[in-house]
Amino acid sequence: MSDETTNETTEEETEPEAQVETPEPEAEAEIPAEPEADTPAEAAQPPAAEPAEAPSQEPGRKRNRKHIPRGERRQRTKPTRERPATRKPIVRLEKPEHERGRRQERRGVVVSDAMDKTIVVKVDTVKAHPRYKNVVRRSVKFHAHDERNQAHVGDLVRIVETRPLSKTKNWRLAEVLEAAK
User: Fold this and answer.
1) Do 149 and 122 contact (CB within 8 A), yes or no?
2) pLDDT in tens, 121-150
3) CA distance 151 to 180
């Protein structure tokens, strides 16, 4: 008789397990199936998305990440920024009294003064080559504005960068440092 009571208890224990297993197939049934077509013509046609994906994906090759439609791309959310309790007041600084920027200055020799109110200044630069360390000489010609036509060929002058005065003139004569001999 004691054996029968143990068998009954084991049967009772197994019954709740069977009841636990039954909701799982119901959960699978809750997954929505493909919607059925309303008309027979729609039912005959296969879905358009499946054949388009099959030829594009070859076995052994990854899908190109650049050509994923926007809706299928991974969504990233921005971290929210902490908002301060009080806002900072806008503080306006006074404008500085000095010039807007330091203007470039060059020293060079006047090559030509044939034009009216314009001189051509040749500026030589001497640098050591960064790798080979030998001296490299380069020269650049600048057109400079000479309001009073005071510089002549051979003069050593100082020119200052200025706003564009013409197509080629962005420099102005500051002073004649040494007159030609």
Assistant:
1) no
2) 999 999 999 999 999 999 999 999 999 999
3) 9
